[in-house]
Specification:
By secondary structure, this protein is α/β, with parallel strands linked by helices. 24% of the residues lie in helices and 22% in strands. Strand 4, helix 1 and strand 5 form a beta-alpha-beta unit. Helix 7 packs antiparallel against helix 8. The termini are far apart.
Length: 263
Amino acid sequence: MPIELYNHANHVCLMFNDLVDDSESEAVQANQFLIVADGEGAVIDPAGQMTYNALTMAMHKYFPHKNLRYILASHQDPDIVASLNRWLFSTDATLYVSSLWARFVPHFCTAGRTEGRIQPIPDPGMGIPLGKGMLYAVPAHFLHAEGNFHFYDPRAKILFSGDMGASLVPHEEVLKPIVSRADFAMHVGRMEGFHRRYMVSRKACRLWADMVRGMDVDMLVPQHGRYFKGREAVGALLDWVENLDCGVDLFTEANYRFPIPVY
């Protein structure tokens, strides 16, 4: 069953976290999201082939997937849009993705299927009309992809944060939001290794954290693992990540050495 992150006055935000069985898959756990506003729908980071059938079936309780208006992709990775060909075949939806990746994601599709179906997002981001309101593509460049966007729903006050805040946890733990600084302190070990390797630099993390502090965010929901509910938990994440040495901050000449070791 999906998690209802928000449901009020014809506006629903859903998180799907368990469409692939951990025991039967070698793939990393991933969350998918559906926003339905005034009868119009947008799916965020719909993932790959393994989730497509289950996601479209699960969506039908809330919204007929064939009527989908948008596919919103935080970046170009397979766990984000590897199922793109099937979505474009079964719906009339438009894909929103960074302008850096707009000519790369067609490689997931049959020739010609993406023609007129991709809206490149410029680096500063953009507004995306949905129902009677707007969603916003928010810059998150180099966190971790060169062209990377998070998606903000101002009505629900939710920031769908892609890989930022991601953690590697069993499916049953995804259901438990982080709600306090104490929760965050116990959880951070599930995040740290991923963020130190996948996020590009402390500078990018700091710029992003400063931006989010200026937004009205009650909930921050990553694409992997547990989510952050309430200002205290969101603040704990921002305080941690803006001071995180990661990516190129940690690399030295030892990481670029030849000959390659033999194992």
